[in-house]
Design a protein that fits this description.
Strand order of the largest sheet: 1-2-3-6-4-5
Low-confidence stretches: none
CATH architecture of the domain at 34-128: 2-Layer Sandwich
Largest sheet: 6 strands, mixed
Strand content: 25-35%
CATH superfamily of the domain at 34-128: RutC-like
Structural class: alpha+beta
Shape: globular
Mean pLDDT: 95
CATH class of the domain at 34-128: Alpha Beta
CATH topology of the domain at 34-128: 60s Ribosomal Protein L30, Chain: A
Distance between the termini: 24 Å
Number of strands: 6
C-alpha cells in the first residue's frame, strides 16, 4: 500500500504572507484552497465593487492552485461566500466574463452562500475550493 505524504502548506510568494492560516494545503494530489477574499499583496481589500473583488479573490485562488502545479481545469469544487447576493447576481454577466478570462470555459461544482459578514469588514466575497492535480503536473512545496 502506497503511503500518502503528509499535508503541506501552499503559500505563493505573490500573495500576502499568511499568519495563522495557509492559502492552501496539499494532501496527496488534492489541494484544499483556503478561503480567499479580495486581499492584495499589501493586505488591503481591492476597491471597485463586487466584480473587482471577484477578480482579486479568484485570482488569489488560482495563484495558490498554480503554485502546486494546478490549472483551473483541476478545480473540482468552488464555494463562494457573499455578503450581498443581489449585487453579485446583478453583476453576474461581468463576473462570468472575469471567470472565463482567468479560468476558461470550464466550471466545477459550485455553491454560492450568503453571509452577513466576512473576516475583513470591507470584503464582499470569499472564495474557497478543492482541486485534484494529476501527478505529471503536481508540485509539492518544500
Amino acid at each position: 500500500m502506497a503511503t500518502i505524504p503528509a499535508p503541506v502548506p501552499v503559500n505563493p510568494a505573490s500573495l500576502a504572507r499568511p499568519s495563522g492560516y495557509s492559502h492552501g494545503t496539499l494532501s496527496g494530489n488534492t489541494l484544499y484552497l483556503g478561503g480567499q477574499t479580495a486581499l492584495d499583496k499589501d493586505m488591503r481589500i481591492v476597491q471597485g465593487g463586487i466584480v473587482e473583488q471577484f477578480r482579486q479573490a479568484f485570482g488569489n485562488v488560482l495563484a495558490t492552485l498554480a503554485e502546486a502545479g494546478g490549472i483551473p481545469e483541476d478545480l473540482v469544487s468552488v464555494t463562494i461566500y457573499l455578503t450581498d447576493i443581489p449585487d453579485y447576481q446583478a453583476h453576474g454577466k461581468q463576473i462570468g466574463e472575469v471567470w472565463r478570462e482567468l479560468a476558461g470555459p470550464v466550471y466545477p461544482a459550485m455553491a454560492g452562500i450568503g453571509t452577513t459578514a466576512l473576516w475583513q469588514p470591507e470584503a464582499m466575497i470569499e472564495i474557497l475550493g478543492v482541486a485534484v492535480i494529476p501527478d505529471d503536473r503536481l508540485v509539492r512545496p518544500a
